[in-house]
Amino acid sequence: MIRELSARLGAALAGTHRTLAVAESCTGGGLCAAITDIPGSSAYFLGGIVAYHNAVKTRELCVPGALVESCGAVSEPVAAAMAEGVRRRLGADVGVGITGIAGPAGGTEEKPVGTVCLAISATDVRQSHRRRFPGDRESVRRASVAWALEALVTVLAGRGEEKK
């Protein structure tokens, strides 16, 4: 499923002549790996930043420290700032940011394990979403990668539902 979504994303990006950059936290490089599993992905994928620590989010992606402090690292506003930050930093047409709590620890009542926030930033689209995935750490990470790929394909096909 992930490979199929990656191939669809590649075709959509190549078809629109757009480039992509990724900022990921909870997926630990899994999203970049899925994208680069497709031969020829260097034509549209510029790169990614694994911003696991908050200091990397603020320093490398220009996520305001006050935003991380007020909303928490796992929040739609932080995911949106990550997406915008990586898009600008790497000079891409489309940026995606994903942050979450893969577990097994780290969850709270407000943000339980499995909570993931995803955002997409492009000239014509600003989206952010929050979901909760069941399962163990690997299941949450795999579901998060699939979700990000699917959301990107949807946006590039012009079917993005939420514009912010």
Strand content: 15-25%
CATH class, named Alpha Beta
Domain count: the total is 1
Number of helices: 6
In round numbers, the mean pLDDT is: 94
Distance between the termini: 28 Å
Number of strands: 5
Report the CATH architecture.
Alpha-Beta Complex
Q: What is the assembly state of the chains in this entry?
A: single chain
CATH H-level superfamily title: CinA-like
Q: Characterize the main sheet.
A: 5 strands, mixed
Query: How is the largest sheet built, in terms of strand order?
Result: 2-1-3-4-5
Sum up the overall morphology in one term. Answer: globular
Helical proportion, percent range = 40-55%
Please give a structural write-up.
This protein is α/β, with parallel strands linked by helices. It has one domain (2-156): Alpha-Beta Complex (Maf protein), CATH 3.90.950.20. Helix content is 44%, strand content 21%. The chain has 6 helices and 5 strands. It has helices at residues 2-16, 30-36, 54-61, 65-71, 76-90, 137-156, and strands at residues 20-24, 45-50, 94-100, 115-122, 125-132. A 5-stranded mixed β-sheet has the order 2-1-3-4-5, sandwiched between helices. α2 (30-36) crosses α6. It is globular. The model has no long low-confidence stretch (mean pLDDT 94).
